[in-house]
Each structure stands twice: as C-alpha cells, then as structure tokens.
Amino acid sequence: MVAERAAAVGAVVDAHARIFRGLVRAELEAIPVERLKEVTEGRLQTGVLAAAGYRTVAQVSGASAQELVRIPGIGGPTAQQLVGAARQIAEAVEQSTAVRIDPAQPDADTTGLLVALHRLVLAGPAARRAAAEAEEIDALLTEPLAAARPARGVLRGLLAGAERRELAQRAVELLERQVAAAEADGLPLRLAQAGADLLRPDAGEVEVRVEFEHRSAEFYAELALLAEDGRLTGVDGGGRGAAEGHLPDALAESVRAEPLDDRGCTVSLRGYQAFGARFALARKRVMIGDEMGLGKTVQALAVLAHLAAAGRRHFLVVCPASVLVNWQRETESRTTLAAHRYHGAAKESARARWLAEGGVLVATYESLRTLPEDPVAALVVDEAHFVKNPAALRTRLVGEWAERTEYVLFLTGTPMENRVEEFRTLIGHLQPDLLPELPAGLGVAGPVAFRKAVAPAYLRRNQQDVLTELPDVVRVDEWGELSEPDRAAYAAAVAEGNFMAMRRAAYAEPAHSAKLRRLRELVAEAAGSGHKVVVFSYFREVLATVRDALGEAVTGTVSGALPAEARQEAVDAFTAADGHAVLLCQIQAGGLGLNLQAASVVVLCEPQLKPTLEDQAVARAQRMGQIRRVRVHRLLATDSLDRGLVEMLRGKAELFDRYARRSDLAESAPEAVDISDRALAVRIVEDEQLRLAARG
C-alpha cells in the first residue's frame, strides 16, 4: 500500500518536473545575455559571450565556468561571475514560475501529468490516510516483529535461550493485540481498497481531460498537497503567511497545533483550507472572510466532520434560500455527513430525520422563525453579512442561536461594505469580549490596527495569494456613447429625478441601444469561440430586453422572483449546455451563492452601487475549479451617470481593500465613503441635472 502510493506520487512528481523544467527553460531562453549586467550592476561585459554564440541566459546557466574560460577574452574570475549571475537569474525564474494546466492547449507532457494526477484524485484522501496508517503500523510493529523471531520455530526457540523466548512470547501477544485492534478498526479493508484504487489502469486522454474539466479543483488540490510536503516546485501557494491570513505569530502557531480529523471528508483539503478549519476549531467562535471562490463551504464542512468524528451528532447551517440546495449538495458530496433540508412543506419531517439520524440541518434565515431550539454542536452562518443590522429579526434570531452554541462559524466574503461598525456587529455575535478592543472609531486608526484587533475572531485570505493556478481575470470597461434615443430617455429620467430610470435608460429603446449593440457583439464573439456567457443586471426589465435581443442562446434567467431550487436548475441547464450558452442573472440573486464557473465571459449591464456586489458576481465564475481565463466586460456610457458612479465605486472599493483585505495603507476614515445608497442616488441625480442644464 505504501509502495503503491509512493509510485503514484512519483509519477506525478516526474510529470510535473518535466513541465516545470520546460517552462523555466523557455523563460530563460527569452532573456538576452545582456541582462547579466544588471545582476552585477554593470561590471560584466557580455559582448564577448554574444560573439561566441551565447545569446541567452539559458545558454550561460547551462554552461560551466570551464567552458566559458575557453572563450577568448574571458578569464577564470569572469567566467565564475558569469555562471553565478546566470544561475541567480535562473533561481529567480524558478521561484516565480508556476505550472498551469491549459485545457485549450493539450500536449503530451500535460496529458501525462493529468493521467498521473487522475490516479490520486480517484483514490482521494482515503488513500493518503491509508498510506499514513500503513506507515504508522509498520513502525509500530517493527520492534515486536524482531523480538518475536525466536517464536517462529522450535529449534530457533531452543537456541535463543529462556530470556529471549519469554520476550518473544510477549512480543507475539502484543502483535496479536495490535492486529486484532487493526482488524476491528477496519484497517485491512481500508488498505485493500486504497491499494485497489491506486493500482487501477491509467485512464485514457479523453477521459482524463473530461474529468479535469469537471474536477479541476481536486487535481490542483493534489498538486498543492504535494508541494506542501516538499515534493514539488512550481506550485506556489503564496507562502505560509498568505495561507494563514497573516495572523499574529503566536495565534497562528496555536492554530497550527490544533488537531484536525478529516476522515469524514471525501475531498482533499488544501493547506490554507485545513488552516481555516483548525482556526475555527481552536477559536470556536470565529468568522472566515475569505475572498469568494476559496472554498469557505468545504472549510466549514471540515469543521463539522471533525466534530462528528469526535462523537458530535447535530449541526445547523443557516443560509439564504438561494444557496440552500448548494449546501445540501456540498455536504453530501464532500463529507460522509447526512444533509437534511429544513425548508418547504416537508421541513418538519426533515427535522425529525435529523434529530433521529444526526447530520447537518440546512435552514434559511426565514425558517429560523419556526425552528425549535434543538441543541446543536455547531452553527454555521453563510453569507453572514446578512446579520449585520442589529435591529433586524434575522440578526436577533441568529444571535440567540449563536449564544447557546459552543462552536459558531460565520462565513462571508464581504464582512464590511461601508461601515466598520457593521463589522463590530458580526464580531459581537462571536466574541463579544473583543468589542472593547473595537471602538466605533477604530477605522480612523488604520487597517493595521483594525486587523490586529480582530485577529482572534477573523481570518481572511485572498485568491491572488493562495490560488496561483487560477487563470487571470481580464477586466474591460466598455465605454461608449449613448445613441440619440438613449440620450433622450436619459434626459427625461434626469428631469424627473428618477435615479433608477437613469440607470436603465440605456436600454429604454432596444432597437437603438448602444449598450445592447455592444452586448450583442460580445456575445457573438463568445459564440464564435464556444464560450459560455453570464449577463448580470440589477434590473429585471433590462434582463427581459436582453433576452429578447439574444433569443435562443439564452438558456435561462435567474432573478429574485425565482425559487431557490429553480435557480439551481437554471444554472445546471446552463452548465450542461453543449458549447456556447448565455445565462441572464439579476445581480442580487446570481451574485450570491451560485456556482457559475462554466462561464468564461461575464457582462455587467451597468455599474452597481457597491463594489462588493460586482465582485461577488464575478467571483461566481472566477473561483476555485475554474480552468479558463475569465473576461469581465462592464458596459458604460460616457455621457451618463456611469462615469461618476464608477469613480465613487472606486472609492468604496478602496475602503473595502483597506479594512477587509490585507493592506499596508494606514490612513483614511470610513466616513470618507460612508454613503448610503439613497444619499448616493440623490447626489448623482443632482450632479446630472446640473450637468445637463449647463450643457443647455
């Protein structure tokens, strides 16, 4: 079993190394030999090298000092310096090179890596745990087996003497107890199953690529785990500090020491995810504010699986209705825990099964009103920024559940939108003893002081720090001028002081809409490449207009009026569509909880009032498991409110970056951009009225 896993891991390491070496070599071949001067601050003359045929750093880094000395004009010290400078550059390239698997550019080396990884993915974490158990029992039995040798035969026993025979008999008894314990625990069956999984014949290229399309996150997770074990280079997870959210050293060390039993997980946890689960277990009442797409759900499920392994039976997940189905699916597919949905007509029978069988009860915020106060071992609150308003009923209900539950985990990618005070409300549900350290004016002290104060209850990691394999997001602001009919509709809305009509005026005359024309062009371009497109708008009327314009390419529309189950069905139909397809989403509904990673093109019909609303929508496509570059197009009109709105959005995003993300900036008060949506609307309407009046 240990040998089988070692062979499977070795195949991955070898395949990965071939790709990595090729990438490094290609990078070095693109660097001209003249760049060696920069390493030595201009002290080296490289003209002689170039004349001798050494034109790239790759050629010099692959040479020895003895070879370079043979070149006329290069002495021993210079040769040593040249080789040293070239290898310095090579090391820098190695440190900055990461292997990414591009499904659009298949080659033999990439296919070999996918085939090797596929074996580990199919075997899953159970094979890794079985190998560790096999090594552990092997180490445990080595000494008793050696001591038991005299008991293997009569003659050997007689020759050993009385003392060694007695020791051998004790060793045999110990071995019998250990073997019986292992059999009672099911170890032989686990080892046999893991061995069978690891010895499966290699899958074919087509099968492997299809698997990668659907399970890329699991492929990359296996690479990340091998990198953490020191088996691979070129898999940069951003370093320990990034994976641990740059928590204070003493706190991070205590979290690393926290045990995590992941036997109830059916998928491999990446290092930063395991740390997040340990953080929740060590601190008991915390918020994980990881950026969208980093797997907050699987971290929460790992916490529940650990507690279940320790004998706890009942857990509660509270979430918006839009992600109810997703939580049920994720629980059942990523853990051995049963999921029960407390929603709809059958909610009481689901609760009865949960009480009898144990597992995870998934409930909406609204259903907390009727859910009895059953004791639970852990409470998970998804999209926890929904309970930032102390006066709201759902906030009070969640607070009551949190108060009587030992383990509480809040999940949110947007812990603070406009006010630092809202962040204090969330922390107050978790660790109220921290509130004296979080005065209302803490924001004025700057983000460094803010993050230090909330560290015992708050963990955040960003995509760019820990998911280096994700393709780049290409963001394009599609600026254009309103058509004459657009401009007339916009002017009428401004004259009425109707802010919402101003925002959707660019679609008031579909036959002449400049934004709609650009949207058609983008969708046509995506269709030509076979890419799937998600179109977001705040307004249902705009989505209806877009649907009429795009016709049969649209597979469905996700809006706030659509029940949660129907939203997931619309996403499933979009994902299952062969080739190009378009999904329309009202941004408040489609930007929350749904997984849209089948899309590689995102179109925003208009700018939103909160940067987090746009970020959430984009993150539905750009998340762990995405394997294609995501292009985001935001449709904007120069002669409208869009320009001022984009500038204000940029200011709001800067505040969010300073406080919710890690940042070195140290000034600015939250009041600078603390503007309610209503105040923002009034301000923009007034500005536009003045602008149009001045233009005459």
Automatic annotation (TrEMBL):
It comes from Kitasatospora cheerisanensis KCTC 2395. Keywords: ATP-binding, Helicase, Hydrolase, Nucleotide-binding. InterPro entries: DNA_repair_Rad51/TF_NusA_a-hlx, Helicase_ATP-bd, Helicase_C-like, P-loop_NTPase, SNF2-like_sf, SNF2/RAD54-like_C, SNF2_N. Pfam families: Helicase_C (PF00271), SNF2-rel_dom (PF00176). One of its GO terms (molecular function) is helicase activity. Residues 518-664 form the Helicase C-terminal domain. SMART domains: DEXDc, HELICc. The keyword Cell division does not apply. This is Helicase SNF2. Residues 277-433 form the Helicase ATP-binding domain.
